[in-house]
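Design request, tokens follow.
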């Protein structure tokens, strides 16, 4: 039995209604993972990992790895934004005050800024209970935001409105760059609702 599973180093996978990094890129020029699925370094790493399995399983291993790679950009933009904003002292202060006065709505305007996030997902390959190989990725994501206003209630961001955004992503596998992609500036959605 072949088992291909993914383990993310961070808990930022998205809820079904979240805006994902894949969606940001798809709206401005297509899914960037399509460009890397046949990258020589990815194909070589998957083929090398498959050699640890009986040859009858190689196609399943390769297909499973490609399906897991396809999920790497299904990360919540909202989670990355919130984690980045929590590093700002004035944002943390506003969050704390909104917890104390939970019936009030607070607004926090932020200057133009960039939020960067690094994720280290791993695809673990197992044959039954035996671990055969790991594919260790590093994904660097960044979002430049101009003119954002946050609506905060009860210690949570409930909505963000922004003017212009730009996103970038870099995906590496065992230190080989599989893709680097950046979007042009694009108008942000009228608002992003946070769960």
């Amino acid at each position: 039995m072949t088992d291909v599973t993914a383990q993310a180093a961070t808990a930022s996978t998205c809820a079904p209604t979240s805006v994902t990094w894949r969606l940001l890129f798809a709206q401005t020029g297509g899914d960037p993972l399509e460009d890397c699925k046949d990258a020589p370094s990815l194909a070589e790493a998957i083929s090398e990992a498959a050699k640890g399995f009986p040859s009858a399983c190689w196609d399943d291993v390769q297909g499973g790895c490609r399906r897991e790679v396809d999920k790497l950009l299904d990360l919540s933009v909202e989670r990355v934004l919130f984690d980045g904003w929590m590093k700002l002292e004035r944002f943390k202060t506003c969050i704390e005050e909104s917890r104390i006065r939970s019936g009030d709505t607070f607004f926090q305007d932020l200057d133009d800024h960039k939020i960067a996030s690094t994720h280290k997902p791993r695809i673990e390959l197992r044959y039954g209970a035996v671990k055969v190989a790991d594919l260790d990725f590093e994904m660097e994501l960044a979002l430049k935001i101009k003119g954002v206003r946050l609506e905060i209630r009860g210690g949570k961001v409930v909505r963000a409105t922004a003017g212009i955004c730009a996103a970038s992503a870099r995906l590496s596998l065992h230190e080989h760059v599989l893709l680097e992609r950046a979007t042009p500036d694009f108008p942000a959605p009228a608002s992003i609702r946070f769960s």
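Comment from the thread starter after seeing the answer: thanks! The chain has one domain: 2-10+19-193.
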